[in-house]
Amino acid sequence: MKNPQTMPEFPTAFSWGVATSAYQIEGAADVDGRGPSIWDTFTHTAGTIIDGSTGDVACDHYHRYVDDVAIIADLGLKAYRFSVSWSRVQPLGYGDWNEKGFAFYASLLDQLEKHGIAAHLTLYHWDLPQGLQDRGGWLNRETTLRFAEYAAEIAHRFGHRVVSIATHNEPWCTANLGYGNAQFAPGVADTALAAQVSHHLLLSHGLALQAMRAQNCPAKLGIVLNQWPAMPATDKAADVAEAEWEYARSVQWFMDPIFKGSYPQKALDRMDLSRFHVHAEDMEIIRQSLDFLGVNYYFRAFVSTDNPPKQPEGKLGFSDMGWEVYPSGLTDLLLKLHAEYENLPPIYITENGMAVADKMEDGKIHDEQRIAYLKMHLQALHEAMRCGVNVQGYFYWSLLDNFEWNSGYAKRFGLVHVDYETQQRTLKESAHWYRDFVSKQPQAK
Ligand code: IFM
Predict the structure, then answer these.
(1) Is 2 a member of any domain?
(2) Quick one: which of 227, 276, 280 has its CA closest to 256?
């Protein structure tokens, strides 16, 4: 797929937005009673983050949210996806609520309402309260109950003010990067534990949906999964089998329990199940109906059994993260989900974006690569919709350059450049392009 010149038209009711997450932008780590999360502990541990940075200040969004929301409005966007920092509203993850923390999110929602921007809230974007980690974190089944209580409280306070609530963002990362290879907080490397954590995350998702529905929460309820199609490097049987396994252990591992009530056998066959405990009732709890599914798409998995493994050609280049730009993978993925899951709810593309080594020249950032990326992915998305996939919105990742986890501030995904010395925000060329593109889309009257 080439950088397209003509852009397609999306449906009138389609939501156009941007996404962020609490720890990556808020800063104010110990302000107004916020408790520490596992990411505070992790970033303050030597050797965990490439540039030695932390999210203590990040984009200082906690103090600048009024201006940041004004930027979203200025871009002509009508949807904003953000996450709540659990330890800001409940410092330990159990026990007392922190009213000042809730007040911050209430003020953020006020600003969004003022500009007519629909709020899409995520409950958990990786920042577990340290107080719960001290009790065993996601390895402790009790954490699933605490999560459901937290979900119910948010639904009770904000459920009528937001369009959607997602339980988890990318539980694959929490499990596999947090517990599988120690790249993310809490920094554990044990794949058997990662499997157990993923089960508790799914269980907590099911319990949270039940708890929010018990509150008659009017918001649409769902989950956000990061997904990729797995493509064999060659048509050798070994590569094909490996790609099937990769797809089973990443995409189907989360989709099958939610939509089919069971884990994929192909993944189970190769797993260390010695510490994998599933209670009899769990799978029915996990299999709650969803009002929406959030899909985060960045790249495909290119699967080779050669040693060393074959690498993708990357005809459309690679991002500054080293991720292959592969827009047609989004079409393939969505069509595959559509074919595979009968009860698939409407989809939002809750994240899609590109890290670029942006350079400021004469006060401007000419991020042509990001514009091309956007165009190609929107084209690919449109193609999936043309083939019948029900997609209702697109959120670019991210509004702002921000704290990119173990890459610190070294990777820039934003439509808006952030100077971390001055906290000055500058719209990149891609932001102008996105504004222009969205302004030409049919608008609901
Ligand atoms: O920055 C992250 C985000 O927190 C979750 N999805 C992927 C993004 C880019 O790595």
Answers:
(1) no
(2) 227
Mean pLDDT score across all residues of the chain: 97
- Count structural domains, the chain: 1
**Which of 25, 321, 404 has most ligand 1 atoms within 8 Å of CB, for mutation?**
404
Q: Is residue 1 part of a domain?
A: no
Mutate to test the pocket of ligand 1, among 124, 126, 356, 398 (most ligand atoms within 8 A of CB): 398
Question: pLDDT by residue (tens digit) across 330-384?
Answer: 999 999 999 999 999 999 999 999 999 999 999 999 999 999 999 999 999 999 9
Rounded Cα–Cα distance for residues 136 and 119 (Å): 32
Query: Which residue range(s) make up the domain with 320?
Result: 15-439
Going by pLDDT thresholds of 50, 70 and 90, the confidence category of residue 3 is: low
Single-letter residue type at 83? S
The three-state secondary structure class of 131 is: helix
pTM of the predicted model as reported, rounded to 2 decimal places: 0.98
Ligand 1 centroid to residue 285 C-alpha, Å = 28
**Residues with catalytic function:** 170, 351
Query: Measured from the CB, is residue 170 less than 6 Å from ligand 1?
Result: yes
Write the CATH number for 52: 3.20.20.80
CA distance 142 to 3: 49
What span, in angstroms and rounded, lies between the C-alpha atoms of 387 and 377?
Answer: 15
In a domain, 9, yes or no: no
Q: Would residue 4 count as lying in a domain?
A: no
Whole-number Å distance, alpha carbon 279 to ligand 1 midpoint, is 31
Mean pLDDT, to the nearest integer, of 230-258? 98
Q: Are 114 and 24 in contact (CB under 8 A)?
A: no
If you search the block for the tokens 């799914």, which residue do you land on? Answer: 202
